[in-house]
Amino acid sequence: MLSPEEIQEIQTALAHCESNFAAGLDALKIVQRRRGWISDETLQEVARFLEMTPAELDSVATFYSLIFRRQVGRHVILLCDSVSCWVMGYESLFEALKKRLGIGFGQTSADGRFTLLPHPCLGACERAPVMMIDDELYGPIEEEMIEKILARYE
Amino acid sequence: MEITETVSIHIDGKPYQAQTGRNLLEACLALGFDVPHFCWHPALGSVGACRQCAVKRFRDENDQGGEIIMACMTPVTPGLRISIHDPEVLRFRAAVIEWLMINHPHDCPVCDEGGECHLQDMTVMTGHTRREYRFRKRTHRNQYLGPFIHHEMNRCIQCYRCVRFYRNIAGGRDLNVFGAHDHVYFGRHQDGVLESEFSGNLVEICPTGTFTDKTQKAHNTRIWDLQTAPSICVHCGLGCNTLPGERYGQLRRVRNRYHHEINGYFLCDRGRFGYEFVNSDKRLRTPLYRPERNIAQREMRLEELFQQAVLRLKNPGTIMGIGSPRASLEANYALRSLVGPENFYAGVTADEHALLELARTILTQGPARAVSVQEAARSDAVLVLGEDLTQTAPLLALALGGLGYQKAVAQARKVQLPAWDDAAVRQFGQEAKPALFIATPQPTRLDQAARTCVRAAPHEIAALGLAVQAELSKDSAAAPEAPEALAPDIAQALAKSERPLIVTGTSLGSPAMVQAAADIARALCRLGKSVGLICCVPECNSMGLALLQAKNLSAAFQKASEGRVDTVIVLENDLYRRAPAQAVDAFLQKAGAVMVLDHLRTPTSLKADMVIPVATFAQTSGTLVNNEGRAQRFHAVFPADETIPEAFRLLVELKQAAFGQGRPHLRPVLEDQRLELSRAFPVFSGLAEPLPSLAQPAPGGKVPRQSMGYSGRTAIHAAVSVHEPKPPHDPDAPLAFSMEGYEGQPPPELITHYHAPGWNSVQALLKYQSIAGGPLKGGSYGRRLFLQAPAAQSDFFEKLPPAIDLKAAERLLVPLHHLFGSEELSMAAPAVAQLAPLPYLALNPEDPLAEEGREVLLTVAEQTLCLKVKVMPGLCRGVAGLPMGLAGIPVVALPAQVVLTKGDAT
Amino acid sequence: MNRPLTKNFQSLGPPLSLAEYEKAGGYQAMRRALTAMEPGQVTALVNAANLRGRGGAGFPTARKWSFVPMGKDAPRPRYLTVNADEMEPAAFKDRVLLEGDPHQLIEGIIIAAFAIQAEIAYIFIRQCYTTAFRRLNTAIAEAYAKGYLGRNILGTDFHLALHLHESAGRYICGEETALLNALEGRRPVPRAKPPFPPVIGLWGKPTVTNNAETICNVPHIIQNGPDWYRALSLTPDGGTKIYGVSGKVVKPGAWELPLGVSMREVIEEHAGGLRPEVKLRAVLPGGASTALLPPDHLDIKMDFNSMQAAGSRLGTGTLVVIDDKTCIVGLVLNLLNFFARESCGWCTPCREGLPWIVKLLKAIENGDGRPEDLTRLKEQPRLMAPGHTFCPLAPGAMEPLQSALTYFEDDFKRHIQEKRCPWK
Ligand SMILES: Cc1cc2nc3c(=O)[nH]c(=O)nc-3n(C[C@H](O)[C@H](O)[C@H](O)COP(=O)(O)O)c2cc1C
Ligand code: SF4
Ligand code: FES
């Protein structure tokens, strides 16, 4: 069930949309911010609220890389794998993260803390290599800093 | 309508004529060029996704380089210079196929689509013969999509045709595309039965084996081994054209047969998947006989039973013949001649018969014209009175569902957007709600396409109709209360339109409503409008039966109750689906002997003294008249079994044997029946004309029912005899049970396969049309019987239906129809039966008894029923809906006032 | 030197508030446009200023605006959408502007919307620009509170609603027609052109899409006039440009410079030159979808026409400096991997062709390459040329591939011959 706060927020979003469809992504984000990801049940609830079919909403949801249709950890690490970061040593950063967390891309650490995802250029190329954890951007990252950064997330 | 002009274009240096208003791909195809394509489809328009239809365009005659463009996205313009065969564009088209084949499995030899695969055709056409991709293929999980459609996602080439058809044309909202980049997936959000009543068209829309016919797969046959003949759907009154295919004495599938004016490219799922009744274990396969009433029926050889029947008929006494709206004109007529016109009764009750007579009168007398489904699709204002079209006339629902798009096309034309530019037109016309008005007691699937929907009881719908008529005639003020309050809006939209259409039908059992529809049409005629009128009828030959001008079943019951019937012959009819059981029991009891000719075991056949199994539509030929009064022929797909005769032939033979009439030494043929029929009834005068190649056998002979690739012709009977059997003779059709005969494109009415060199898939249909989506070469077919000059002024009926006064405990019981469930024959097809609902009683949520699943009691026609409540939001208040035709739901005359009580109260 | 776009930037802390922005001369241009000018005059000024779009293609901005049907019978509502998706690898110049001076963008939007008489505007921003999003949100609220957005702005009969749309991470959303589909809540695949969005756009209505940087220039043109504006540039195209450098330089960053500075000046003077331990191998001049240029091209001027003449594109104006310790095959693989992953999946060449290229490049990079792979790779830019695909994404992807094959073919050959990456 959508919570009253979720419904309230979705209704606000709907107010400046010309159709329910246009609010689809907003609604998914509102709900994802609270629940971490969009399960099938969540998707169906949002769809019902917007008078869309689950297929219609899922068709849009699955297009975007930042709508999570599978469960993610408590924190999502978006590691920039694009050209500037690649030139500046993204690969060794990735190796270090892999080793430290024991996971590869698309996986969640055993303790459920982190999910690691590759992401196109985070638009912070002057700070390459960079990564983003939840809403926070880090860069340029040296291997030694990883531990300290991760420690900030429970 | 589109304004087009013929202009000159250059293709590979040669001048050609093409039509503006079309895209270049359509123009090239119409000129006979083989331009490969995927995402474009005549019914879907262009979106430019697949990039397969690339050609080269040159600025002028000096341009040597040129640029690659997509033919499907390029309008025909005067002086256009293109090349189809330029090496660079040839390479590009080959590359497109190569890309598409990267992830395509190598399973043609076992793929259900193999042999009629558009992808196979295009692969060969572009010359992609060597796979150079050496990496892993991507794979997908398949989904369960219900009993009709098999899903094999790995074969998908992402042309997007399925979703475009399903969403844009069928109005379905549960199939979509998911994901992005090279992980796009076409299916449902989760496994489950596809919701659209038109899902079966995915089989033909999909250019690969991604969506295939699950019923066909269950008894798989390579498609080139199917024997096919032009046929007509027997599952509703619209008369869609079909191509059933047979192998080893079983029907294996039904495909669409293009009819420009009726079904176009599509069929509904009842029509496509209902065919399995032909193979069903509910079929009657042996003659049954009982010498006396109270002993069991026993099997008897056909010859013997025939002799018994002849003896019986020779007995002096009254004979009564009961015809059938699901039997051909010829079979009905043969029965009529056997028993004599005065003893022939239409197999429908007085109420239904009166409705059909009314429909016939209205349509034959005019002045409104009976229009075809595709003409309906071109209307610009439509009022539907009473019919839940998706359930009772599905292809008409499909057509009307496209009115919004038609409106968008019209608007788009004003800003120079061509009709074929599908995505742009939809984009531009997003808000276009067509002038489609629907008045029914219950919500319908077509509502989403309508501007306004009115929920009302049948008599209120009739009143609304009269109010619209009054509004149009301006001779009385509109009644103020709802739903009549909408009358001015509706009247205004109809009066403003150029091509108005009124749709009604018999399914609610309301003559007043049908009259009101006719009155509106007449009022519009008086305003000088060219108005169309469609009256939906329930069965494949309801209209044909109405034209035979027989007495009705109730009259037969009446006569029998007066004690004067010796022998009753029932033709392809289950009387228990027509009239209340007590009435039928009494009738059958009165008859000295009951002879039933049918192909399915029915409650009626169980009560018969003589049961003669007869061929289904698949093994005999004949003529059916659809709701618009179009007589269409269907042809035997495979020869009738020796022990299961064709009804019309058996009836003529009985007449010959019993009364020595006719041409006793010759095998009866259909042509003779038609000839007699046309003499007996002026309306059928056109039917006597033989089909083109019967009249004048073409040099190549009859049109083969078997394809060039038909295998096992000489070996198929080897277990019985090593001698190759002579192909069975077919005296009734210009078609042969053979792979030999007429070569090339037969007359449009006789197409048995769509095939052209290089084109093995249904897309070959292009080659049979002069322009994609247009009429078949050779013209229209099927004879319109109602084209007589309409009597200019006919009078209004103007009888206001009596208001109904419901008491507190009462509801108005109205019939509800189910595409899957309400029709007799398709319910013998397991896939269709699986989707039929269980019996229920529908109530409005505000009804005091509305609680999902609660049992309620009601008494109708002296029977007490206990039904589970289904809460139906949107159902008209004060109304209770009874689903028709389901097992356990008795036949009652509806609408009727009934008292409802709680089930547990007793 | 005049640096109008960045003049209000604060080196530390949040950007200027509305009041501070006004104190610095902000919203004057809006006032002038709305109260003293006709929409057509605004467009005329922008036209005279030779403002070309900063979204990558350099389309003349006033020309785009002039396609919008105007007049009493013209369709309504009209829309302005501001493209701040900026998901192109190596691009970060819009972020700098959004974070640095959000009111400048809002003022530009009001003026641009006035010019085309749009009553609804959207800023389309990518999800990962969280700081920019917050700052814009605050600024928009301030502007509404002050009456600069909403109904009857400055007492005129001009109304404008401005919405901030946060995307969810897909590069293709930056393509202007895909962006419209995204705003409508559809799958953001591009639309076919024609019809062009200024005529049939969002919800079928006239819509102009401009890049965020483009719009930021508008207030300055109105405020200081086209002559002043043209004089900012070293080329006939007017204005300054946000240039950026990332990669193997001493001081990566972004700077506002006259349009038409040379690559050398940007790299050596502003970015501090190459890191001491490395030598220059190539430059990716304007984002992932521009052609690589070898070191002998350093003196080329970074403007639309010069870059085009050199066989590349100005693109985003943010360049990546690539050194001799970086493998070009690996670089191209990285770029193509991005494009393959971000293909929308609508048209065949891009959806199927790019992943195949990625597999070929990966094979070569991993030492599994075959000579015929190179032949196949070389054919791809011709097959995925502009017009062959549905939108410019795949042709854009071909630019680095094509240029790498032109300038660095030997690198590919060495990989194949040595059956390994010589740079590893
Ligand atoms: C795949 C693709 C991605 C694009 N991404 C962006 C983008 O992130 N930001 C942008 O301003 N333009 C982007 N563009 C260009 C836009 O389509 C459009 O041309 C631009 O926003 C117009 O703005 P301008 O006229 O102000 O330059 C992209 C184009 C393509 C083909
Ligand atoms: S080139 Fe084709 S598949 Fe690629 S992003 Fe554009 S439309 Fe989508
Ligand atoms: S048929 Fe033209 S692009 Fe698909």
Summarize this, please?
The complex is a heterotrimer of chains A (154), B (906) and C (424). By secondary structure, chain A is α+β, with helices and mostly antiparallel strands.
Strand-helix topology:
The complex is a heterotrimer of chains A (154), B (906) and C (424).
Chain A: H1 4-15, H2 24-35, H3 40-49, H4 54-61, E1 75-80, H5 83-87, H6 90-101, E2 107-108, E3 114-119, E4 131-133, E5 136-138, H7 146-151
Parallel strand pairs in A: 1-3
Antiparallel strand pairs in A: 1-4, 2-3, 4-5
Chain B: E1 6-11, E2 14-19, H1 24-30, E3 54-58, E4 67-70, E5 81-83, H2 87-102, H3 118-126, E6 149-151, H4 161-169, E7 176-178, E8 185-187, H5 202-205, E9 211-213, H6 214-218, E10 227-228, E11 231-232, E12 241-247, E13 250-256, H7 269-273, E14 288-289, E15 298-299, H8 302-314, E16 319-322, H9 329-339, E17 344-345, H10 350-365, E18 369-370, H11 373-377, E19 381-385, H12 389-392, H13 394-400, H14 403-414, H15 422-428, E20 436-440, E21 452-455, H16 458-473, H17 487-496, E22 500-505, H18 511-526, E23 532-536, H19 542-547, H20 553-561, E24 567-571, H21 581-590, E25 593-598, H22 603-606, E26 610-613, E27 622-625, E28 630-634, H23 647-659, H24 670-680, H25 692-695, E29 703-704, E30 735-736, E31 783-784, E32 810-816, H26 830-834, E33 841-843, E34 855-860, E35 863-871, E36 879-883, E37 896-902
Helix pairs in contact in B: 2-3, 8-23, 9-23, 10-18, 16-17, 16-18, 20-21
Chain C: H1 18-23, H2 28-36, H3 39-48, H4 61-66, E1 79-84, H5 93-100, H6 102-115, E2 120-125, H7 130-146, E3 161-166, H8 176-183, E4 207-211, H9 212-231, E5 240-247, E6 253-258, H10 263-270, E7 280-284, H11 304-309, E8 318-323, H12 328-342, H13 348-365, H14 371-383, H15 393-407, H16 409-418
Parallel strand pairs in C: 1-2, 1-4, 2-3, 5-8
Antiparallel strand pairs in C: 5-6, 7-8
Helix pairs in contact in C: 2-6, 2-9, 3-6, 3-9, 5-7, 6-9, 12-13, 12-15, 13-14, 14-15
The complex binds flavin mononucleotide, iron/sulfur cluster and FE2/S2 (inorganic) cluster (FES).
FE2/S2 (inorganic) cluster binds at residues 25, 37-40, 48-53, 70, 72 of chain B.
Key structural traits:
heterotrimer; B: 906 residues; alpha/beta; Ubiquitin-like (UB roll); Dimethylsulfoxide Reductase, domain 2; Barwin-like endoglucanases; seven-stranded mixed sheet; six-stranded parallel sheet; 26 helices; 37 strands; 26% helix; globular; C: 424 residues; Rossmann fold; de novo design (two linked rop proteins); four-stranded parallel sheet; four-stranded mixed sheet; 16 helices; 43% helix; binds flavin mononucleotide; binds iron/sulfur cluster; binds FE2/S2 (inorganic) cluster
